[in-house]
Design a protein that fits this description.
CATH topology: Enolase-like, domain 1
Shape: globular
CATH class: Alpha Beta
Radius of gyration: 13 Å
Structural class: alpha+beta
Number of helices: 3
Strand content: 25-35%
Helix content: 40-55%
Number of strands: 5
Mean pLDDT: 92
CATH architecture: 2-Layer Sandwich
Largest sheet: 3 strands, antiparallel
Low-confidence stretches: none
CATH superfamily: CO dehydrogenase flavoprotein, C-terminal domain
Strand order of the largest sheet: 1-2-3
Order of helices and strands: EEEEHHEH
Amino acid sequence: MGAVELKVPGGKLIRARAEVRDGRIKFARFTGDFFMTPEEDLEQLEESLVGLEADRDRVREMVICFFRAKGTSILGGTPEDFAKALIMALESAVSSSRGERIP
């Protein structure tokens, strides 16, 4: 399991935890002191990430497109910040289990 904390410049703290198995996201969770409306979007994002290929570009595109399509309002961060935190957590998970980096 990979875990990171990302302090957004001028914003809030975003924590991301992730697990990768066979090159795909098995688990993803975000916590922190940010605010999001509607709150349910965060859980829906986490669920939709499961099974996604753990590829930096795919993850970034998916997270950003998810928030934009939903019209989610985020105070203390941006969709790009959430993507960055998750990619960092995925890299941490992969490197701790196999000594590799995600593509």
